[in-house]
Design a protein that fits this description.
Elements: H1 4-10, H2 14-29, H3 36-48, H4 53-65, H5 81-84, H6 87-95, H7 102-109, H8 118-140, H9 165-170, H10 175-184, H11 190-203, E1 230-233, E2 236-239, E3 287-288, H12 294-305, H13 309-322, H14 326-331, H15 336-350, E4 353-354, H16 361-366, H17 369-380, H18 387-392, H19 399-429
Parallel strand pairs: 3-4
Antiparallel strand pairs: 1-2
Helix pairs in contact: 2-13, 3-4, 3-8, 4-10, 6-8, 7-19, 8-19, 12-13, 12-19, 13-19, 15-19
Length: 430
Amino acid sequence: GWLEAVTQQMGYHPQYLDSFLKTQHYLMHMDGPLPFDCRHYIAIMAAARHQCRYLVNLHVLQFLRAGGDPQWLRGLEFIPPKLRNLNEINKILAHRPWLITKEHIEKLLKISEWSWSLAELVHAVVLLAHCHALASFVFGCGCEQDEGLGGRGSLKPLSLGNQCFCEATASNSYSQELLRISRKRSLDSCMELDSLRERMQRIHVEAEGRDEMRLLQQDREEGEGQGAEVGVQGGAEHCSDPSAGLSPLADTDGEITGATNLACYMQDPDFGYQDFARRDEDQTQVFRVQDYSWEDHGFSLVNRLYSDIGHLLDEKFRMVDGLQSSAMAKRQGCEPSVFKRGIWNYIHCMFGIRYDDYDYAEVNQLLERMLKVYIKTVTCYPEKTNSEMFDRFWKQFKHSEKVHVNLLILEARMQAELLYALQAITQYMI
């Protein structure tokens, strides 16, 4: 019940939902290398990178219910150095995963009082990738919105306006009582969670709603078509920014709405996605799946160091690939498998992952520009997504089809982060 807004959207595809929930439950609540409170705190750190209050608030509650120290909720300065040291790869994986190296892995694993074991690090990496990708889905399907919009079925189980739960309680006279109550709650009691929500609603006055985020200015819609193209420069295939110059998130003052509330869980908040095509080519090369793939390399490594998670992740990747999308593909004039592969490869292309057997000219033929703008935004900077992007430019898609595309974004993004992280771990082990 605690992820009800997410599961409501995924419920359009029940088979996938079942696979997702099994993975989510295994990561958070089953035996594994990491303590339960640390798992939820890592999830908080990951969700904060994209300013996803929906996930941060939910994991704050789960952190407390797992016996976590409330002092940790004051920010990174109040957590053990071992957890705080994870901040660097959290930042890199969330925004520019191609920058992760074996040196980052070595730094975390080096022998010291605060060193990580390989198994712990793999668990943490999977959690980070899972929560980054889930943040994309949360924003992409509107679960972050304070109110349901246009029949999208958005819920607000813990909406506190622009406030994070932990911040809203920090100066409240009832905060200690609430934290004490939270820590006593059973992990599997939905009724008690509902009671806790009611207490929160009584204690807090909902802050003023966020300023409506602008989408794409109409006077810039024309003449921008070339910005979404996949091209070749300097011999390296790349995906340029389809939304260049469109500023879908900036408000009237040019500031990102609500960017400061989760700052206590972040370092270097200005670090964000940067087009892979603009990278320093002397330091970063295209990631070729033929050299390191999930099927041939990543699966076996992650499954060996964190038992059974590889099977659950693999099932989830296969499940999203097997979802029916005949109507969606027909609208684009192609076969379902061709359409889905175009979306998947476009997402991986934005992270510098290339398939030698794929003709990237197909992306521009299959995906119309506004769809590419949406995919790029939800994938690379999901916090910039708003309801207009979901509703206005996708009128030809059914709601279930929109959710399907968001599931493709979730899984393709997660696999991309895992490929880079697991390759770095492999290079360290070698």
